[in-house]
Task: structure prediction
Amino acid sequence: MTSGARGEAGAGADVLESTRMVSMLLYLYENGESRRMEIYNAVGRNNRLPDKLDVLRDMGLVYYGGDNPNRSIIGLTDLGVHVASKLRDIDAAIRTSEFPGSGVA
Result:
C-alpha cells in the first residue's frame, strides 16, 4: 500500500482502496465533526483505524481538533468534503441502479 503522504509519488485514490477509508470519509461527510470512538463505532473496529485516520490527515482530507488527543474531534478539510461528496455520489449511483449494466447514468 502507498504510504499516502501528500506529494509522494503514487499517493492518490489508490490509498482509498484500504479497508474502511471510504467508510470513514462518508461517515464524516454525513455526520460532520466526530470523535474517534464515534467513527470507530460507525465503521467497525479495527486496530489499524487510527493509522488510517493518520493517512487521511497526511493526505489533507481530514483534520484533528481539540485539546485532548485521546478525545480529539476529527473533521473533513475542504479537500475532504470535495472528495467525500464525489464518493457519496458514486455510492448513490451504485445503490440506485436496478442491476449491474442497467445503463443508469
Notes: The longest helix spans residues 78-96. Confidence is low (pLDDT under 50) at residues 1-9. The two ends are 32 Å apart (CA to CA). The helical segments are 21-31, 36-43, 49-58, 78-96.
